[in-house]
Design a protein that fits this description.
Helix content is 34%, strand content 20%. It has 482 residues and is of the alpha/beta class. The chain has helices at 138-154, 167-175, 192-195, 204-221, 243-256, 268-278, 282-289, 306-315, 323-328, 335-341, 356-371, 380-387, 389-394, 428-435, 462-481; strands at 39-45, 48-49, 62-67, 70-76, 85-91, 95-99, 101-106, 157-164, 180-187, 229-230, 233-235, 260-264, 296-300, 318-321, 344-347, 412-416, 441-446, 449-453, 456-457. Helix 1 (138-154) runs parallel beside helix 2 (167-175).
Length: 482
């Protein structure tokens, strides 16, 4: 099985190293620097720019100058020094540029149950008769993971946080496409072959194996590829991990200084199983074992009682909000109450699709349904923050990702706003959130390199990736139905 090594970050458009003397400080204002670099590697002109910084107005007819991996200028094109030059200049009149989306919760391989899982009423791992993680072969995992990662990237995700199976093979295979990838195999000590039939049998050997594989993955990939890859320990769920195993994971996370991601209160079955086994709610259990803290990224958070909401809010966890996926199953996370309690809300696509623009729209609508109307605290700017800055903070990258400002890493998405459903756009952000789609993405830049151009990936053959993923899914379904 090939290792799929990561391709070099540089392309013909974007060199990998910045010229000497052009370093800038992360977090500086978006106003032009006092002495702009005389030469940019990539200069984008003419678009409207949303910086992602709270309260900042859009910059119309903007310029973004990139040197190496970082933004060196963000501001009006008219304020660029006349002597400014660039190796590559792109005119982007009629486009909108936003920070790259940070998708904090996805399972790329689960595209194999797309169009089926949505109508099951239950998570795929708990449902008999469909392909499961333990059925996926290594070559199938690589093909499906690349398909899901490419979809997410084409729709504007510049960082994905993925978990499922064969992560030792899929992480590099996905990162080879050019986007940032955090990944981990799911941690559990339950025998998943029995869960779909209602049996939760925990085995020490299974837990030891899954944790060892995750830590080996972190040794190999965390912080490599110029910071494009990383690992958050992916605890599957409180019901599929015994109390003792959860404590072991806590110790490992603290020792290795790794973040933790999990599913939390994603089903009534999970809540009932943990209550029977441990005498606590899932949130209480995570608190008891030491996992409930500001570094936890917890997906769904659907079935929380009042005490649970206060508890997770006080801990400052990040809720990986999956609004469309949850609504498809007839549920919704109490995001207004969670945020009021102190939780951070970030966004993920889970396993249905990779369109974070659509997820922003659903997140806004789900909150307003619960509030009973339009609220000043739930506006398009809040949705964009959930998809960008909040996600970056959830991944421990709030210092260099999630905004467009000098000194920050050049991760950005260009939308073609010349299309009928995006015209007119007196409020570009409102238009993006309410009527935009992932299919409107024209260009994606990661680490200063163009990884999507004219709607197509630059570092792979899209048709080959699609065909390989389709073939892998067909084989999995044949075996499951047999």
């Amino acid at each position: 099985m090939p290792d799929h090594p990561i391709s070099p970050a540089a392309s013909s458009d974007t060199p990998s190293e910045a010229p000497a003397g052009t370093a800038v400080t992360p977090g500086t204002a978006t106003a032009p620097p006092a002495a702009a670099p005389p030469h940019y590697d990539l200069l984008l002109l003419g678009a409207t720019v949303l910086s992602g910084v709270a309260g900042e107005a859009p910059v119309v007819d903007a310029a973004l100058g990139i040197v190496g991996q970082r933004l060196a200028y963000v501001g009006p094109a008219a304020a660029l020094p006349r002597e400014a030059k660039a190796r590559v200049t792109r005119r982007l009149d009629g486009r909108l540029i936003v920070p790259g989306y940070v998708n904090v919760h996805t399972h790329t391989i689960l595209s194999m149950v797309r169009g089926v899982a949505e109508d099951l009423g239950f998570a795929p791992a708990y449902t008999p008769g469909i392909p499961h993680g333990h059925d996926v072969r290594p070559d199938e995992a690589i093909a499906l993971a690349r398909l899901g990662a490419m979809e997410a990237m084409l729709f504007g995700s510049t960082l994905i946080n993925d978990s499922y199976v064969h992560a030792d093979l899929t992480l590099g295979a996905m990162a080879d496409l050019g986007l940032r990838v955090y990944a981990c195999g799911r941690l559990h000590d339950v025998d998943f072959s029995g869960v779909a039939d209602g049996r939760w049998e925990h085995h020490v050997a299974i837990g030891e194996r899954t944790l060892r594989e995750a830590l080996d993955l972190a040794d190999r990939w965390h912080g490599t590829a110029d910071g494009r890859t990383g690992v958050q320990l992916a605890v599957h769920a409180p019901d599929t991990c015994s109390d003792a195993f959860l404590k072991t994971i806590t110790a490992a996370a603290h020792t290795r200084d790794l973040g933790v991601a999990t599913h939390l209160a994603q089903s009534r079955t999970e809540v009932a199983q943990v209550l029977r086994r441990s005498g606590m709610t899932p949130a209480q259990l995570l608190d008891d074992v030491g996992l409930l803290d500001s570094r936890l990224v917890a997906a769904h958070c659907l079935f929380l009682d009042d005490d649970d909401i206060r508890r997770v809010g006080a801990a400052g966890i990040t809720v990986a909000h999956i609004p469309k996926g949850n609504a498809t199953g007839g549920t919704m996370a109490p995001t207004p109450r969670l945020r009021a309690a102190g939780a951070r809300i970030a966004l993920g696509t889970d396993n249905m699709h990779g369109d974070m623009t659509e997820v922003m729209r659903w997140a806004l609508a789900i909150a307003r349904i619960q509030l009973g109307g339009v609220d000043a605290a739930w506006q398009p700017a809040d949705a964009l923050a959930m998809a960008t800055g909040h996600g970056a903070a959830a991944m421990g990258r709030e210092h260099d990702l999630g905004r467009l400002a000098p000194g920050w890493l050049a991760d950005l998405v260009v939308f073609d706003f010349r299309r009928a459903h995006l015209t007119p756009h007196p409020n570009p952000l409102g238009t993006l959130v309410h009527t935009g789609m992932g299919r409107d993405v024209e260009m994606v830049v990661v680490d200063g390199g163009i990884v999507v151009d004219d709607g197509l990936p630059t570092r792979c053959d899209a048709r080959q990736v699609i065909e390989a993923g389709h073939h892998a899914a067909r084989q999995l379904w044949k075996r499951a139905q047999a």
